[in-house]
Structures are given as structure tokens and as C-alpha cells.
Amino acid sequence: VSRQLKEEIRRGFAGLEDPLAGLLAMLENSSDWKGKGRSLGYYITTELQLWIKEHPAVPQSGIQLKKLQARVLGILSQCPANLLDPLISIYQLHTADRNYLLEHVSHLYLKGNYKEAAILSMKLKLQPDQDVEKMCTPLLLQDKANVVEDYVGEYPELQSKLLQILDTWCEPSFNIRDITRPYQGLSRYKPEKFNRRTLSKLVFRLLDQFNVDPALCPNVINQRHLRTLNYLFYKRFVEKTMTEENWADHVQSTVGESRCLQGHLIQLLLRHCDRHAAARWAQRWGLPTDMLPHCLAEQPPEPHTQERVEEATTADNYEDSKKKDYYQLPIPRENIHFLQTWEETLQCWEKVLQPGQVVGIDMEWKPSFGTVGKPRVALLQIAVKDEVFLLDLPRLLEQAEVEGEKEKLPRFIQMLYSDPAITKLGYGMAGDLSSLAATCSALKDTEKQQHSVVDLLTVDKQVDGLSPEHSHEERGVRQPEKGLSLLVQHVLGKPLDKTEQLSNWEKRPLREEQILYAASDAYCLLEIYERLCKNPESFGLSSDLRESLVRKRSIKPVGKKQLNKQEALSPSGQQCQGPRVEASRAPAAAVSPREFSVVCDNMLQGLGRYLRCLGVNVRMLDNEDDHRKAAEIARQEGRVILTSGLPYQTLQSQVGEGRCFSVNCSKKAKEQALQVLKHFNVQVSLTDIFSRCQ
């Protein structure tokens, strides 16, 4: 606003006997201020607010103020959002009679102005005296979940109450039409947005956002567990990519003491296995006969000694085939060290924190299967030439907490990542570091401080012949290799055995298979790096390995750091023929929205619409589409899959590494879009916005 206009407004206030009444008269007799944006009425109102602070004797009191408050309440329902706070401040509405304010908001509500009633309630902090279900239901029907979140945002007791209400609506026997019936004539009603699936997603987002105990929402949690059980049966009996022990472990922790889930498990066992397996699980939990199908109620479980013998024979055969078909650690078992105390870790740091050292780093955590919160690292693997150290992170952090030295372990980890004289190798390191930060808050800035980091995920699209289809044809197996396993196969000759990938990594003691799997995942990075450095041309890479990794644009995420060249020792101690790859602090090459093509799973339609507004080439699944259709589209059209929760586990196995991204469903569409754009380094310009048909 020009200085001249401000001075004119202030002279006008000074000449009025009652500036507050004068402002109201102006607003009541004009409509300029009712539109969006900053009108003349807005500038006059905000200037009066400042002027009053400089002239404290101006504000009214008593009966005169009450009359002005009654008049201004009539205006507030028509006000744009930017005028609410100034008018509430000028006319001291927080001092008005609370019952009078509640009555006015109720009048707005009865007229069908639900959003306006909620916003005014928030401005006047009336929520504790209102019915949260009554205020929020029409907003949810109008797909205004963001207003609902703001409405309960400052009141933990209202957050809990709202979540309990939403969870009740998600109960299988609850008739959602009982909620929608009173609002049949509601304007902007979006029935397709109001169903158990959408409500369940909202509950999980709010549980995470408000940090509320999930036990408050048993129906939604139970349905998530049911989906997890179905997924575990798919992995075990359809894909056949999960061992009996891992499967049983996850089934046990998923089902717990829930009789409902136990009954569902028995039905799944009868469908996928046989009566003997179902009877054994029923006996394990002591299920009453009235919960069992008729075929089990009268049949005692048979001992499965023979089955155990068969399993043991199968396991022996499997071990023999593994040595023939899969990558094997080239170091003796005694060189793999499982570390659970600070004293034990000292031998690790003495060997790792050496100038010129090349270190392979990987992490494992318990599969979340879509539960609330970020995964926490259960095992940190650090490999150097001829040795692997497996750090029991939860145990070490707990010990440090007890001893009052909780900063000790994070300090060493930060020293490792930030030391430019030590080369750190990883695969998909951004995800690992995110989980590391969720495990220990002292490590949240590790990604910003890292130096000399090489993420081999940037290599896999540039190595000649590296594709899941190539692996599939060459090995003649049903499930194609992917990700790190595919890179290991192409560079070292055999893929990784990923059978233990979905293990429960928090359970102690770790099984021998888990220990060997974890050590292999970290040590293979050293061997890949050494082989690529010695002969990059044989893998279709430039002799200048740095140029090969940086020049070709890749939409893979991890590259936040570009790579520099520097001579370094290989893991064997010999000078590499090719240059060492080192991460610099420069940003990765940007991708424009027009070059970025995605397919959004059906739970992310809001994100899809938002990305399309920004110029991204988007295809979206319909509500009735199977999630697997996203993989078909991605393969046929070269798109990246955007999905969330359990479908991610299935879809990522059907496309190449980096071609499937799990979006945080606890965020709103705008925040999800920012997450995707940052992850793939997509740079949006003004010309991109609305450049595509909506």
C-alpha cells in the first residue's frame, strides 16, 4: 500500500468520533471487501488494527462494545479469511459472551455454512464447547478433511474423540448410510470420497500426525492386520518367496491375541494349506470348538513330525542349491561379528575409521506392513575388506541410554559418514538414512553432513543389459531378479538370495540365515565397487566412471549428491584401474515435469490430480482397479509407480529398482507432491503449471 493511501486512511480515523463504528458502517454499506484477495476494505481494516495499538484509548467497552460485536458477527460469516483475525481483534470478540458466540456459530451451521461455522469456531476457540462429531461430519462429506484436521489440531482430547468416531464408522457392521442420510441435500457432497477405505486412510494419517496410540482405533487396526495376513499368505503360498519360519513369525506377531484374526487365519490356512496345518494353529491358541469350522472341530491335530522331517530335507537341498545359484560370502563365518555392547563395537570403529578405507553399509528393519510410524533400524551392517560388523542398534542405543552416554554411538556414525577420507558404499542410501534418523534423533542431519558417499543405485540403469526381463529369461525362474540382487548378478555372476529380506529383524537371537543374509548385503557392495573400478568399460560404463554416473539423467532418487573423481584404494588394497567415485555437494541433474511420467495407485488420486496441475504426465487407477494394473501400465509406458502401504511390497517386485515409490499417506496431496518432486528432483517452472489438460 502506498504511503499516501496509509496517511489518508489514518487521517480519516483521526477525524471520526467513533472509528470502530465508522469501520462497521463502511463494511455494511459496501461489498468490495467480500471478494478474495486484498481489497481496499482489507487495507482500511488492517490499518485501523495498527492505529488502535498506537491509540490504546480508542477501544470501546461495555454496552456500546456489545452492540458493535453483535453487528460485526453478522459480517464475519461473509468475510474472506484474511479479514477474520483483524475484525476479531479490533472488536475484542474473545471477550464477548461465549454462549452468544456459540449461538451465532450454531445459526451458521443450521444454514448449511459448515465450513464457515468451523473456521469461525477455530478463530474464537469454541471447539471445547461443541460436538466434534456434529461439526466434522458434514465437512468430511464435502471432502474437507484438512478443515477437520485444523479444527481438532490444538485439542488432544478432541483428536482422540474424532479418531474414535471415525474408527466406529469403519466397523464392518456399521451402516455408513446412517451418517449420510441426514445430509442428502448437502451442497458439494462427494459420496465417492466417503467410504471405509478413505476413512481408514484418514485415521492412519491422523494417528501418525497427532501421535495418538493406535489402540484407540481397534477396527481400523484390525482391518490393516487382515490385509497384512492376506499379503503374508500371498508371499508364502503364491509368490513362494518367504520361508516357513519368517512367515510363521510374522503371522504370530500380526494375529497376536485377537480371536477375530485367529479365526481369519484358520480360514486362510484351510484355503491355502490343509486341515492339519489349520488344526495345529488352532491348538496353539486354544481356540474353542465353536470358533472352528466343522471339519476341524471334531478332528484332533496330527503330530507333524513327518512334515518337520520333510522340511528339514527340503532345507538341506535348498542349502545345496543356494551355493550353486546364489552369491556366497567370500569370507569365513568367524569374520562376521555380531556386536551388542559398546566394548565390542570399539574393534569395529578402530578398523572402519581409517583414512583411505572403503566401507559397505546396509541396514535392516522389521517390515512395517503399513502400520503407523516410520521403520526403526534394527541392524546396521558395516563391511570392510575381509570382515563384516553387524551392530545390534536397539541394544546398543538402550545400553548407552542406561549408561547416560546416548550421544556416543551417534557420534561415531556421524564421524563415519562425514569423513571425506573414507569411501562409503550403499544402495538406496536415502531410505536407509531416513530410517536411521527415525531410530535416533541425533542422526537426523547425517544426510546433510555426508561426504565421499557412493550410492550404487545410480549405476544399475547404466550397466549394459541390466533389466529384470534379462534376468528372467536368462535364469528361467518365475520371479525376476531386481534391484541390488540384479546388479550383483550382472557384475559378480550370481544374484543375492533375498529369502530373508522380510525377516523380523527385531527378534533376538538372529538366526544364522539372517546373519549371513545381512553380511552378504553389505559385503557385496565392496565387490561390486571393486569390479566396476577395475573394468568399467566391460559393463558399458565410461572409462571416466564419474562421467558415466553423472552425465546420463536418471529419475532415480538417491542421487542427491553428484559424484567426483578421486584416486583411492580398492577393498583389496590395490589401486583401482578406474577412478574412485566420490559424492560432491552439488545437486543432481534436474528433471522437468514434462519428462516425468507416473502412474498413481487408486489410493493416491488426489496426489495424481495435484501433479497433473504441475505439468506431470499422470495416469491414475480407478477405484475398482486392481493394484497390479499399475505395474502393467508402468512397464508398457515407462512410468514410475506411485503407491503406498502394502501394495508397494508387491508392485516394487514387478518393475525395475527405483521405478516404484511409496508415498507417505499421512500427508495431504500438496505435501505428497512435494515429497515426490524432491525425491525425483523434478523442477517445476511457471510455464509447467496447468500446462496439461485437467
TrEMBL record:
The keyword Transferase does not apply. Keywords: Exonuclease, Hydrolase, Nuclease. Residues 336-537 form the 3'-5' exonuclease domain. Coiled coil: none annotated. InterPro entries: 3'-5'_exonuclease_dom (IPR002562), Exonuclease_MUT-7-like (IPR052408), Mut-7_DEDDy_dom (IPR037432), Mut7-C_RNAse_dom (IPR002782), RNaseH-like_sf (IPR012337), RNaseH_sf (IPR036397). Residues 560-581 are annotated as: Disordered. Pfam families: DNA_pol_A_exo1, Mut7-C. SUPFAM superfamilies: Ribonuclease H-like (SSF53098). GO terms for molecular function: 3'-5' exonuclease activity; nucleic acid binding. GO terms for biological process: nucleobase-containing compound metabolic process. Residues 565-577 have a biased composition (Polar residues). The keyword Repeat does not apply. This is MUT7 Exonuclease. It comes from Scytalopus superciliaris.
